[in-house]
């Protein structure tokens, strides 16, 4: 199936329902972790990354972010990312965000940047 570190809790526990919706919700969990791993390599300024709860404590300790003065864009984009990641990591798969919602939120955010 994949690397256990990136599997959703229901896959690890063997409690996943074998229907399309459950499998899609299971698939949203992994990109949330991958996105966090990629983004944690960037240096966000004056932002407490601990406000974004990472489901695997071990990786949280690996974070090394510098803190300076944030721009409005950085704060808004970080808030959007944190919200999306937290919704990807919901322990209850039925509460997880869908890829369509992720796409629409990012598209709406980018659209608002160009319209202002």
Automatic annotation (TrEMBL):
Q: What GO CC annotations are associated with the protein? A: plasma membrane; receptor complex
Q: Which UniProt keywords apply?
A: ATP-binding, Kinase, Membrane, Nucleotide-binding, Receptor, Serine/threonine-protein kinase, Signal, Transferase, Transmembrane, Transmembrane helix
Molecular function, one GO term: transmembrane receptor protein serine/threonine kinase activity
| Membrane topology, from the record | Single-pass type I membrane protein
GO terms classed as biological process: cellular response to growth factor stimulus
Which subcellular locations apply to this protein? Membrane
Under which main EC class is this enzyme filed? transferase
EC number annotated for this UniProt entry:
2.7.11.30
Query: Which InterPro entries does the UniProt record give?
Result: Kinase-like_dom_sf, Prot_kinase_dom, TGFB_receptor
The entry's family comment says: Belongs to the protein kinase superfamily. TKL Ser/Thr protein kinase family. TGFB receptor subfamily.
Q: What is this protein called?
A: receptor protein serine/threonine kinase
Native source species: Rotaria sordida
């Amino acid at each position: 199936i994949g690397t256990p570190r990136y599997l959703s809790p229901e896959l690890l526990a063997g409690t996943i329902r074998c229907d399309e919706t459950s499998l899609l919700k299971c698939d949203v969990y992994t990109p949330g972790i991958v996105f966090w791993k990629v983004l944690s390599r960037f240096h966000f300024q004056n932002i407490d990354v601990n406000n974004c709860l990472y489901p695997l404590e071990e990786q949280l300790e690996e974070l090394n972010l510098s803190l300076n003065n944030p721009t409005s864009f950085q704060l808004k984009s970080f808030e959007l990312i944190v919200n999306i990641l937290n919704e990807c990591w919901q322990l209850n798969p039925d509460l997880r965000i869908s890829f369509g919602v992720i796409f629409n939120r990012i598209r709406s955010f980018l659209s608002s940047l160009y319209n202002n």
